[in-house]
Amino acid sequence: MPGGLQEWIHKLEEGEWARWLGVGTLILVLLAVAAIYDIREFKNFATQEAMDNAQVARNLAEGRGYTTRFIRPLSLGLVQAHRADKDPLLKGEHPDLANAPVYPTLLAGLMKVVPFQYKITNRSDFEKYQPEVMIALLNQLLFFASAFLLFRLARKLFDSSVAWVSALVFLGSGLFWQFSVSGLPTLFALVIVLSIVWCLVSLERAAAPPEPIPAAGGNLAEPATPTPPNSAKLIALAAAAGGLTGLAGLTLYSFGWLILPVAAFLLYFPKLRWRLASAAVIAFAVVLAPWLVRNHQICGHWFGTASYAVYQETLAFKGNVLERSLNPDLSKVEARQLFYKLVDSASDIVSNQLPKLGGNWVCSFFLAGLLIQFRSSTLQRLRVFLLLSLVALAFAQALGRTRLSAAVPDVNSENLLIVLAPLAFMFGTAFYFMLLEQVELPFVELKWGVTGLFVLLASAPLIVTLLPPRSVPWAYPPYHPPAIQEPCGWLTEQELMMTDMPWATAWYGNRQSLWMTLKSPLRRTNDFFLINDFQKAIHAIYLTPVTLDEKFRAQMILDDNDWGKFVLQCLLKNEVPPQFTLASMPSGYLPNQFLLMDRERWNPKTK
Question: Strand, coil or helix: what is 540?
Fold first, then answer.
């Protein structure tokens, strides 16, 4: 055999190329699993948050600034009350006051680089919306980046065995795969959180006292003059952790609470504790402050409409009542109502979410492993940091819970604890290996068979998901992109429509969409006419199964807000209220959808 060929074979089998061959094989397997998952399980967006972020990103990419076409009456009221001229900024592009800016900016960059096809041309055989496929692919890249960061972190803290199994358990989690195609900013936030932990671990290692040096005869001797840790490096790492925490807060506002466990971690260091904690807090504030100032200048609230999340789902503001109100009366919310909301939400978190953190049972190993003591101070401190982060995010999740959590359980932007699941996987895997070391097996190789079974069982939900039958590729009811684009196409970009799912019409239809007011046009004095008569004319009302699937007696008849009564009157009497300006109704929409327009726009002769 020629020497060159023999050398190549040696490199492939045992040499430097063997590692890259293994890495390449793993990448191909991951790409194959991603392709299978996307073909079988991909659906169009099912959450309000995903569509909202995407339509803001498109506005940014197309040069309209950080604006929104999903108009909340609450946002109009806040802007109007804050401005001296009382202009709600509805006639032009309305500033977005609901979303943190980082994730839409990331999507806008993707939209600038990759061609997005927003208009659906194949309506008869539609399956997948191309822009959402592009966004899903970006999130799957973030998913794989998170797995890589988790692997590196676990190998740094434990060993290669724990690193590989932790990464495989994470990659086998069906819940994270659902997040990868959801369009939500959760996986981007996860990359940031793992980067924060990397900075903290690096800082702890850099601040550790020097290791003893082997002396003659194999004994350990302390160095004569220990080298002190580099203070500038430690402060830089603390500032990086704080800045990344600010970036997490600008991805989802609730993640700003992580600055508390970050600062607590830094207070562990006796000599530089205040300097390190101060550096982190200052960096956090520097990153976060400009955006908060922008919000305050527009509406008088640092976090825009998100400032009101704490009041939602209280007894006074159930469901989406608060966001659909122009001038909500917050005095109706008593302190005890906030306390009841906190207790009720916390009970659900403790009973349901913590035991199945991350979507599988590996986190139970993490919870059981809390009983053991690590010899490494880094692991001890990191575990305390993880526990403090769980408490901080659980508090933020409980108090900030809205109807979004109930609309799509688990896979929603309010599931904050999910970003801590990979760290729980890592500690749970480490505890599993500790237990495995205590088990006597007939031969050593059997341990890897047991470990393979451990990973396989942890990945069982994903494996079952990939089995037949194939999932329906759209989230209907109520979202079917071609059906939503059709009525939106009858309006111009400058015209305003009112709908019960404005996030969908803003994203799929690219039309300025006002969330339907609390009361229907049956009542002459209400927010509908305040907006239509004095702010901007409403050219269409578009109602979907979001409203039409409500319980007939309990909600459509007895509800004082009477949109159900409005629909029934239009159907039974075949007429709209006499004071109402929208009177044209196209055929083919009832009974699943209800559409009123100012004229027969679907008729080419009347366009």
Answer: strand
What whole-number distance in Å separates Cα of residue 276 and Cα of residue 405? Answer: 36
Pair (487, 358) in one structural domain = no
Q: In terms of domains, do 37 and 149 share one?
A: no
498 and 435 housed in the same domain: no
Q: Cα 495 to chain center, whole Å?
A: 30
Could you give the number of structural domains in the chain? 3
Secondary structure element (H or E) that encloses residue 492, with its range: none
Q: What is the DSSP string of 186-225?
A: HHHHHHHHHHHHHHHHHHHHHHSPPPPEE-GGG-EE--SS
Q: Mapping DSSP to helix (H, G, I), strand (E, B) and coil, where does residue 498 land?
A: strand
User: H-type helices in 100-159, by residue range?
Assistant: 102-113, 130-157
Answer whether residue 455 shows pLDDT above 60: yes
Question: Which amino acid appears at position 359 of this protein?
Answer: G
Q: How many angstroms separate the CA atoms of 66 and 89, rounded? A: 13
The torsion angles phi and psi of 356, rounded to 5 degrees, stand at -120, 40
Tokens 């470990």 sit on residue: 451
Q: What is the distance between the alpha carbons of residues 96 and 73, in angstroms, rounded to a whole number?
A: 12
Structural domain contains residue 121: no
Q: What is the per-residue pLDDT across 112-153, written as a single tens digit (0 to 9) for each?
A: 999 999 999 888 888 899 999 999 999 999 999 999 999 999
Least confident of 233-237, 315-319, 486-490, 522-526: 522-526
Percent of the chain residues past pLDDT 90, beyond the cut = 60
* 94, two tokens: 């309305």
Nearest-CA neighbor of 72 among 534, 515, 531, 547?
Answer: 515
Cα Rg, the chain, nearest whole Å: 28
Residue 207 backbone dihedrals phi, psi, to 5 degrees:
-90, -5
Q: What is the pLDDT of residues 551-574, one digit of tens each?
A: 654 555 555 557 777 777 777 666
How many C-beta atoms lie closer than 10 Å to residue 105's C-beta?
A: 16
Which pair of tokens denotes residue 282? 């200052």
**Residue 243, φ and ψ in degrees, nearest 5:** -65, -40
Q: Contact 315/405 with Cβ under 8 angstroms?
A: no
341 and 441 part of one domain = yes
583: CB partners within 8 A, 6+ apart: 576, 596, 598
Question: Average pLDDT of 229-243?
Answer: 92
Structural domain of residue 158, as residue ranges?
A: 132-209+229-466
pLDDT at 216: 46
- Structure token digits, residue 490: 């009858």
Q: Are 207 and 229 in contact (CB under 8 A)?
A: yes
Shared-domain flag, residues 235 and 185: yes
Same domain, 572 and 457: no
> How do residues 170-221 score in pLDDT, each as one tens digit?
999 999 999 999 999 999 999 999 999 999 999 998 887 655 545 444 454 5
pTM of the model: 0.92
Residues 6+ apart with CB under 8 A from 461: 173, 174, 175, 359, 360
User: Could you tell me which of 395, 304, 392 has the C-alpha nearest to residue 341?
Assistant: 395
What's the CA gap between 226 and 206, in Å, rounded?
13
Packing angle of the helix pair 377-399, 259-266 (nearest 10 deg): 160
